[in-house]
Amino acid sequence: xxxxxxxxxxxxxxxxxxxxxxxxxxEILGHEGNAxxxxxxxxxxxxxxxxxxxxxxxxxxxxxxxxxRGIGSRLLKRAEEAIRANGFEQINVGNGFNxxxxxxxxxxxxxxxxxxxxxxxxxxxxxxFFTKRGYVHSWECNCFDMRFLLSEFEESETGKGIExxxxxxxxxxxxxxxxxxxAAPDERDAVCACTDDACAEFTQYYRADALYQKGNTTxxxxxxxxxxxxxxxxxxxxxxxxxxxxxxxxTVHPSWQGKHxxxxxxxxxxxxxxxxxxxxxxxxxxxxxxxxxxGYSGYKICVYFMMAVKNIGG
Length: 314
Hints:
With 314 residues, this protein is of the alpha+beta class. It has helices at 4-14, 22-29, 71-85, 125-131, 188-199, 261-276, 290-295; strands at residues 34-40, 46-53, 56-62, 90-93, 104-106, 136-137, 143-149, 163-167, 170-175, 178-182, 218-225, 228-239, 244-252, 280-287, 300-306, 308-311. Strand 8 and strand 9 form a beta hairpin.
């Protein structure tokens, strides 16, 4: 039976286009509800593996030099049989109780997109593999990650008429009467009230006290008008060793939308990551429309995901 470290290593070498920190990957691969299927070579080295949790295929990969020999097909068949035996009528690939990859990494664009700069070497082989076996992309839009080399960031992208001010919690930027800054410890409730109205599914990610504490590497940025929080963004160091930062969970209160607030939040947050000394920034698991918004600050789509599903009922 494959050890968790073996599973991590085959994931790491076969899914280079996926950004997930090692601790999260190990935790997911070690989940007690997983069923693991494997293929080994004559030396007993793991060359292919599938990990299933309930109705989800969390991972299916085969080492490059062993592809084209039916190993992936055998692993997929065993995974599907396990899911069917558990009583499920639909299989999804990627996101279940958590995810290693949101879906199947691919160069395939399912809908129109802009601001695209795909990873070198990314192709459509993985998505073609699932398509040929009855899987379809289930979203009515694209799903993708975006990435940005911070040396290319231009301060002018933060908008016209920027005024930088000193604030008790750091520096703040004033753009067209809206102040953009790090959230203070006593603003968590106001932040969550804003996200509840703007995108309630994001509120859970804004509740952690650490996000509002000085010295934490992941912080909340807010857009403030007077004393009202009108927009939010989470900015952080994703992987300091790889010099990678992230932005995400952008929200703007419905009554303040259409005023370029989201764009300015992303630009100010990106500037923060650059000043932190990071080399690149990225955002993950996002969707059509946000390629335009994040593109203002220089982010480009680097990988698409086939949100693959297959009906096996009936």
